[in-house]
């Protein structure tokens, strides 16, 4: 019943013969466009599985406002032009009530003008600051921003006495945005970026760039800002070159799939991530303990695979959408949008959300935990 649907199919989760959901009214339709295949599949696959899981659970428990919930999903394969086309279809043809999606920054930003014009609430699962800053009336997002990730990493570096760093980043949308905010945050924090290198996300070797960073006088640590295959290649090349400087990645690789790609080369690296990756070690007293362990168990029991930070974004996006629709008492777009904007103190997998008219993300930078790879696993840095 929770099959991975083909492009354009409706996830009619909660069929009449199996669900207690009333059929007197039309279903509530939640649209989604995610990168389930292609280079960003490690983002979109757990996101879609999470949405399918919780739509199913919701329908099994009576639906939403007494109505069945349907998920209408399209796979954009990480292609921004496809994302724009699919969002147009969701709005004009499928008549969805709300959209959760955008695995990548490029796909999200391609969709934003269409969504803003249509005046339908949109919850993005991508990370770049530009998605929610400046605030766009109909656009919300779940992950912490790349600026917050940069600030969290730089804070950890400074606490370790590392104030002269090398930066290497991808030239795609996420990497380029991450590079820009890192340079700005470093300057504000009194950290000097003494080497600044980039690579194409399709590059298969970055030893030349890493060699230049290694040979830079006074460099004390290195940060790689990107997502996808690139960071795993950077990590392997880093080890191959025998660089012994402290090494950091961004939140763009916060998943077990990255550890599998990078292998032993990931030993000792640090990154900012959510509590989800160390769910089994956070104390019962932690406000996120219940929601993080609950999501982890539900997902892993259903799919027999590890949770990822990215699926957690989808969990939070869906739960906030449900809360907003309940609060609005209808699917009226303006009422749902206003309800989303008013949510305060929601404790999610990613952090505690406090949304407002001035903040459509609602997370503070300290919602990030600093993790380090030890013995092939993520561990919390105390």
UniProtKB/TrEMBL annotation:
Signal peptide: 1-24
Alphabetized Pfam families for the sequence: Peripla_BP_6
SUPFAM superfamilies per record: Periplasmic binding protein-like I
Domain of life the protein comes from: Bacteria
Domain Leucine-binding protein: 27-374
Alphabetized UniProt keyword annotations: Amino-acid transport, Signal, Transport
GO biological process, one term: amino acid transport
Protein family per UniProt: Belongs to the leucine-binding protein family.
Protein name stated in the entry: ABC-type branched-chain amino acid transport system, periplasmic component
Lineage: Bacteria, Pseudomonadati, Pseudomonadota, Gammaproteobacteria, Oceanospirillales
